[in-house]
Amino acid sequence: MEALAVLGPAALYMISMTITPGPNNVMLTASGANYGFLRTLPHIFGILGGCFLLFAGIALGLGLLFERFPLVQTALRLIGSAYLLYLAWRIASAPPPDLRRRGEGRPLTFWQASAFQFANPKAWVMGLALMAGFLPEDGDTWLNALLLAAFAELVALPCIAVWAGFGTAIGRWLDSPRAWRVFNALMGALTAACVLFILG
């Protein structure tokens, strides 16, 4: 019964955390606009897969790294910031779709998006709060952690998919190379701005 009782509050928490702007959602918007919704699906599922592993790992002891080794958190912030700046540059410098030469430019793969979650401080904060606040104390810890992480990602799916869909809709309105360059530059700047929150 305790496990069922936390599902509602956990769902509300995940909705509030995943529907709001952040590095993942800004990148999904840019990807949806540049590559379309279907080509962005590996990126979406990579985020979900990476967060599932991260959240379950936090519940099973990975979160203790922050407590015992503060340098890990500092290193994570620096790595995450550097990678975000690289992704921001990729987004900002992407040519308009109709100018892109064959083989150039591609959305993040499942594995790239999944790996990024381990360097994404927002994902760590989300996972730490989720497991600290909603992991049932009764029953098997491993099973509860896996079920809660899976439930969290099920709730997150439509929330982050909305951003890719939003980007896809914007992409249909951009009808000139100049408009595409302005859009990509704006998305790159927003992605880079997330570094301020990471290092702040």
UniProtKB/TrEMBL annotation:
<protein>
    <submittedName>
        <fullName>Lysine transporter LysE</fullName>
    </submittedName>
</protein>
<feature type="transmembrane region" description="Helical">
    <location>
        <begin position="178"/>
        <end position="199"/>
    </location>
</feature>
<dbReference type="InterPro" id="IPR001123">
    <property type="entry name" value="LeuE-type"/>
</dbReference>
<keyword id="KW-0812">Transmembrane</keyword>
<dbReference type="GO" id="GO:0015171">
    <property type="term" value="F:amino acid transmembrane transporter activity"/>
</dbReference>
<dbReference type="GO" id="GO:0033228">
    <property type="term" value="P:cysteine export across plasma membrane"/>
</dbReference>
<feature type="transmembrane region" description="Helical">
    <location>
        <begin position="78"/>
        <end position="95"/>
    </location>
</feature>
<keyword id="KW-1133">Transmembrane helix</keyword>
<dbReference type="GO" id="GO:0005886">
    <property type="term" value="C:plasma membrane"/>
</dbReference>
<feature type="transmembrane region" description="Helical">
    <location>
        <begin position="115"/>
        <end position="135"/>
    </location>
</feature>
<feature type="transmembrane region" description="Helical">
    <location>
        <begin position="42"/>
        <end position="66"/>
    </location>
</feature>
<keyword id="KW-1003">Cell membrane</keyword>
<dbReference type="Pfam" id="PF01810">
    <property type="entry name" value="LysE"/>
</dbReference>
<keyword id="KW-0472">Membrane</keyword>
<feature type="transmembrane region" description="Helical">
    <location>
        <begin position="142"/>
        <end position="166"/>
    </location>
</feature>
